[in-house]
Every structure is written in structure tokens, then in C-alpha cells.
Amino acid sequence: MATMPATAKPQLHPLLKVVLEIGPLILFFVANARFGIFAGTATFMAAFLAAVAASYALTRHLPLMTMISGGIVLVFGGLTLILQDATFIKLKPTIIYLLFGGVLLGGLALGRPLLSVVFDSVFNLTEPGWRKLTLRWGLFFLALAALNEIVWRTQTTDVWVSFKVFGVLPLTFVFAALQYPLLTKFDAGAHAPASEE
Fold this sequence. Notes:
Elements: H1 14-35, H2 37-59, H3 64-83, H4 87-109, H5 115-118, H6 127-154, H7 157-166, H8 168-178, H9 180-185, H10 192-195
């Protein structure tokens, strides 16, 4: 008896995905510049929730990392607005980066490179490739956490917001692009014999 092929989950167009991820940050930057950090925080929360809702409406599923980020955004954004204390929204990225970095490195220590679960349908890497990629991203997230702490504790709120939008995003894109040699070297399909260590 023939088996039915598994139905692929609907995927967002890459450009729309970028818009939904970057859009809330841009709105955060604009609202902060015009009306201050509390209006910026409220705008960011509303835009983030709208982006998540749009993503779910189009794909009928939400990635685990999006749900975790959403929970942290609501908690720390809500505390910022209720207590009128910008410290909470400034701590939010540190908490998220530490969480992601800790989960990736913790999984790696337990012999489970978790990026292979998240990106299995995108990349086809050998086991050493997944380990190296997971280690690199785990360390990158920890570095972002440290950098966020340095910036918000030593700079003005406006400088921190600018760093969040125009510093972290380019750094992340550059770091991701720098992983291309690793992705090609450890491609399980194209270079299986050469990629084993």
C-alpha cells in the first residue's frame, strides 16, 4: 500500500518573513524617537503581537523560539509599562540571548545539537557540522547578551534603542553570512566523505 507523502507546513515568503521580524523593531525605534521609551515599548509589543498573528494566520504554526520570545516580550514589556521603568525592556534582550545561548550550549553538552532540530528542513549537515554550528550560535548569543548589558548600562536609552535596531541586526546578518563556509564544508549531501572529522 502506497504511503501518502507528509504535508509540508506552509512557509512564509523570505521577504515577508524579514518584514515581520524587523518591522516591530523599526516601529520601536521610530516611536521611541518621537514619543519616548514607554510609547516605544507599547508600540513594539503591539507590532510584535501583530507580526506573530500574521505569521500564524499564514502558516498555521508558530516556531517554539517565537513563542518563547513572545512570552518574554509580554512580561518585560508589561513590567516596563506598569512600573514605568525602562530597565525591564532593556533587560529583555539579555534574557532572550542568555536563554537561547544556554539552551544551545546545554543541548550540545548533552550530545544534542538542537540547531539540527530547528533547521533540519533547511540545511543537511553532518553531525560534526551541526555541533560546530550549534556551538558558534550558542557563543554568539552569549556575546550578544554581554554586549546588550554593556550598552544599556553605559549609554543613554536612545543610544541603546539605536544599537538594538542598527547594531544587533547587522551583526546577526554578518555572523549568519560568515557561517556559509561551514555549511558548505559539512554539507552531508554534497561533501559527505570530506566533511567527516
